[in-house]
Amino acid sequence: GESVGLHLPTLSVQEGDNSIINCAYSNSASDYFIWYKQESGKGPQFIIDIRSNMDKRQGQRVTVLLNKTVKHLSLQIAATQPGDSAVYFCAETLAFASKLTFGTGTRLQVTL
Amino acid sequence: EAQVTQNPRYLITVTGKKLTVTCSQNMNHEYMSWYRQDPGLGLRQIYYSMNVEVTDKGDVPEGYKVSRKEKRNFPLILESPSPNQTSLYFCASSSQRERVNTQYFGPGTRLTVL
Known about the structure:
The complex is a heterodimer of chains A (about 110) and B (about 110).
Chain A: E1 10-14, E2 19-24, E3 32-38, E4 45-51, E5 56-58, E6 62-67, E7 72-77, E8 86-93, E9 100-102, E10 106-111
Parallel strand pairs in A: 1-10
Antiparallel strand pairs in A: 2-7, 3-4, 3-8, 5-6, 6-7, 8-9, 8-10
Chain B: E1 4-7, E2 10-13, E3 19-25, E4 31-38, E5 42-51, E6 54-57, E7 65-66, E8 76-78, E9 87-94, E10 104-105, E11 109-113
Parallel strand pairs in B: 2-11
Antiparallel strand pairs in B: 1-3, 3-8, 4-5, 4-9, 5-6, 7-8, 9-10, 9-11
């Protein structure tokens, strides 16, 4: 999976700091937004999602914010750990069980 | 263990030689999908299937075929592969009884077409 990350924007964060990863989505009619994490050599893994009728949702150490006015999504990771190093993708979908459209991804590097 | 499996994991082939990448899930999921992942382009959906015998095109279906004869299997077929199909391929599945967005991804198949 390393070749997938060659052209990705990279965010470097020190261990223990908070990370904010941003995503601009394309379709104002999208119903669901999802964040995935992809570690090297693995498939994407679901992190958290949010519906279009919400503007914030919290999980364990992660928070997703949705701003529909500017079609912007963000993922906040609290107290970033080395295991958080990965490529993060946002995805949007129009309706239940319809196809997902993924963003191009951001690489998060956690420095010690 | 609940999982999505893909075979083969790595494949090098030549232009025009038909190939099939298999995908199988053991979670009784209705929804299955194929994606390709390329540098700078992220994940793009090729085909998806809402249930047995129900398939539909994603964003980049040209050059690919799929079938869904059984619930657990969703093979991806390249009838005449070309070098622009060199990519990393992922299969995914999810249940319509849960949130559709909780897609479980397989480990990936790296395909090189010479």
